[in-house]
Queue: 3 jobs
Job 1
Amino acid sequence: MFFKDSYDVVVVGGGPSGSTAARYAARNGANVLLVEKRQEIGSPVRCGEGVSMEIFKHVDIRPDPSWFVNQVTGARIFGPSGKFILIDAKNAGDEVGAVIERDAFDKYLATEAARDGAEIATKTSVVSLLKDGGEISGVRVRRMGEESDISARLVIGADGFESQVARWAGFNTNLKTRDTTSNLQYRMTNLDLDPRFTDFYIGSAAPGGYVWIFPKSGEVANVGIGLLLSRIKGASEAKDYLDAFIEKDERFRDASIMETVSGGVSVSAPLDKVIADRIMLVGDAARMIDPLTGGGISNGVIAGKVCGEVAAGAVKEGDCSEEYLQRYEKGWRELLEEKLYRDYMAKEKLVTLDDEALDKLIEVMSEVPLENLSTKEILTAIRTKYPELVKEFEDLI
C-alpha cells in the first residue's frame, strides 16, 4: 500500500508508544499514518523485554501467547553481599510484571493500530519536518531512495531517546553522561533459573546501574547490564562487567549465548515540555523511561493512549495549538510524572552509595515490612535504622 500525501496525524516511530498513539488517534476518528524507518516493526530487538502489569489497567491490551511468555510472581533485588529483598504483588501490585517477546509485542500493537484504522509505512525514514511560515505542517520522508512530502495537521514524535523529530522541533533533548547508560544484553539458553522471579544485582558489579536476569523460562533468559556512562571509561566495559558476572555464577555454567544486543538508554528526568504547536512527543522521545529501572515500555504505552486521544480531539476541534495540546501534558503527567521524578532523585542518590551502604539498604528493606512499596516508604524505612543514608533525600519522605 502506498501512503497518501496528506493526513490528520503522522506518527514517527513504530515502537510501543508510537503504535499506541496511532491506534488511539485512529480509533477516535483521526486519519493516521504511522511511519517506521526499519523494514520490520519490532526488529531488531534492543530491550530487556520486561513490562509491568500496569499497562493492562490503562490500555485495551490482552495478553497474547505470541508475546506474553512469562508472568513472574516477583522481583529479587540483590545487594553486593548476596542478600536480597523480594518485591512481589503484595507490596508492589501491578508493578510486578511479565517477560515478553518484544518483536511480537510491537507487531501486535501495530496490528491493533491498523485494525483501528491507522495506515502503516515501513522502511520509510522521516528526513525533516515540513514548515509553513514557521509552523510545522508535515514531514518529508524517504522511501526506496525517493523523497516525498506528507502534510499533517499534527506530528507525533515517537522515535526514541535520540529523537530527531524532537531536535528538529526545537526541544532541548541534551543528555548528561550521568543520565545515560551503556547497555549490553545476551539472550541465553541452557540455564538453570527459577522462572518465577526477575533478578536485579546492584553495586560494584555494575557501576551506577545493575545486572538483570529476565527469565522467559527456566532455561532461557535475557541477561544484561546497564552502566552509567559517567562511571565508566568506554561503552566496551559493559561486556567486561557482564562477562565477569556470568563467569562467577553457577547457573550459567553450561549456558550458551543465542543473541547479543547493545545500545544506550536515557535515565534522566522527563522533559519539562513535550508539546508545541502541532507537535507532541511520547515515550522515550519525551524521556518517559523510568530513571531507576531503565524501563520504558509500560510508560510509553500508557502515555501513548493519552497522546492518541488528545491528537484525535485536536483534529476534531480544528485546534492543534500548544494550548489545546496541554490536555496531553496534563493527562500523562498525572499518570506518570510524580513517580518519574521521585525515581530520578532516588537514582541520583543510589549511584553515590558504595557497596557497604547498598548492603545496609538491602538489609533494612528485608527486615521492615513494606505493605505498599514505593520510593517514599522505602526511604522512610531506611531512615529508622541508617538515617545517614537518606539525609539528602528528606524531600522525598
Job 2
Amino acid sequence: MKICVRVLLLWLLGIAGCTVPVTRPAPDAGATAGLPETEGWRRVQFRIARPQGETPRWYIGTLIGGEIVTPVYQRNKQDIQLWRIHRRAGDDAHGHVLSFIFYTTPQAAQRIYHDISSNAVLADLRAKGLVTWVGYDDLTRNDSPLIEDTSDPIWPAAIRKNWPALIMGASRMWLGLVAELAVNHADEQDLEHRYELVEQDINRLWAEQGQHAVLHHLTALFAYQPLLIRY
C-alpha cells in the first residue's frame, strides 16, 4: 500500500505544467497599458542544459528555486492567488525544465516577468550555458482564466478545481526547504556547488522523512482509503 501511495503522489506531482508556453520577451515592468485585466494562469519556464547521455542536473533547478523564484515570489506574493513549481527532465525535445506557474493578473505577471528577466543569477546561468532558454506566457492572451484550467483534464471537475491548493502547499514546502537548507551551506562560495549540497540534503530528507511527513499524512487526511493506481 505504501508503494502504491508513493507512486500515485509522484505521478500527481509530475503531470501538470508540461506544455511549453507561447513565448515573448519579458518587457519592462511598467509596460502594462492595453493588457487585459482578467486573472489567469501564467508561467515562466527555465530550460536547463542536459548534455546528451548525462543525468539531469537537478541541483540547477534547486538553485533557480532558491535564488530566482523565491525572491521574486517574496516581492510579488501579494499579487499571486495560487502558484506552484513544476519540474521535469524528459528525454524529449523539451528536456530538463523548471516552471514557475502562478495565477494572477497580466499586470502583476508583467512585473514578475521583469523581476525574473533582470535577475543577476539568471544572467550568470545563461552566460554559462546552464540555462539555455527562458519562456514567458503571452500576456495579451488569457488561455487559462479558471482555477481548474491547468489541472489534468482527465480528472473530475472537483479534483481539477481543488488540486492547485494541494500542489501550492507542496511547492511552498519545497521552496522553504531549499531556503532553510541553503543557510547550512552559506560558507560555500561556489553557488552551483552550494545548491548541489542543498539538493543532496533535500533528497536525504525526502528519503528518510517523506513517507511519514507527506505520504502518511495525505493518506490519513483521506481516511486511509485505497487508491486506484494506473500504470
Job 3
Amino acid sequence: MHSKRMKRLDSRAAWGYVFVLPTLLFVLIMNIWPIINSVYISFTDASGFSTPHWIGFGNYVKIFHSSLIGSASINTVIYAVVSVVVGTFLSLILAVALNEKMKGRAVFRTLYFLPVVSTPAAIAMVWRWLLNKDFGLVNYVLSFFGIKGPNWMGDPHWVLTAVIIVGIWSGIGYNMIILLGGMQDIPSEYYEAAQLDGAGKTRQFFNITMPLLSPTLFFVLVTSVIGSLQVFDLIFVMLDKSNPAISSARSIVYIFYDETFAKGNQGYGAAIAVVLLLVILVLTMIMMKLQKKWVTYDK
C-alpha cells in the first residue's frame, strides 16, 4: 500500500513538472538567456552587424571614465530619491484617506488609478502639452496667482523637476492601490480594541496601521526604487533629442538606449545595462537586509 501511494505521488509530481516546464522554458528563453547574452556582449566591441571581438573590461573602464554617465547617474539618483520618497508618502496619504468610509470613494479610487492603465507615452505627451511654457495649462493656472511659470522643459534648472512631477503622478495610483489592499487586510479587531482603550485615530495609525502595513510598504518601496532607476520613457517622449536642456534630465537607461540603438554600440550599451543591473541588485539586497529592523510580518 505504501509503495502504491509513493508511486501515485511520484506520478503527480512528474505531471506537475510537465505543466510547469513551458513556463520555465519561457522564462529561460525570454529572461535568463538575454541576461547571459548581454553579459557576454558587454565584454566585446559589438557594433552594428560587424563581428564582435573580445575586449575584456574595456567597456566598463569607459563607463567609469565617462562624464556623460556621471551626469546621467546623478540625474537618475535625484529622480529616484525624490520620486520614491514623495510618491510613497502621497500614496500612503491617499490610501489612508480612501480607506475611510466616504461618499464617492469608488470614483476617487478609479480616478487615481487611471494613470496606471494609461501608456507612459500617452502620459508623457499629455504632460508635454500641460507643461508647455507658452500655452500649457499649468503656467496658465499659475498666471492667475501672479506667478510666471518657468520653461519646464527648456530650462536646465526645471526640466528634471518636470520629469519627477510626471513620474510621481503616473505611479501614485498603483502604489495607493497596493497600500490600500494592505490596510484592508489588517483585522478590524485591532482597531476595535484600540478604541475601547481610548486610542485616537493618530495613535491607531502609528501603533497599528504602520507596523502591520510595513510588509506592504516595503514591497512598494522596493518596486518603486527599481522602477525609478529604470526611468526612460517619460524622458524620451517629453524631451526632444535636440532639446538643449536634455543633458539635465538624461537617465542611465536613456544613455543605454542612445548608445545601443541610436549609435549602434551594443557592447558598450550592454555594459551599461549590466552595471545598472548590479546596482539594482545590490540596493535590493541592502533593502532586504535592512527590512528586518522595521518590517513586522506578524498579524
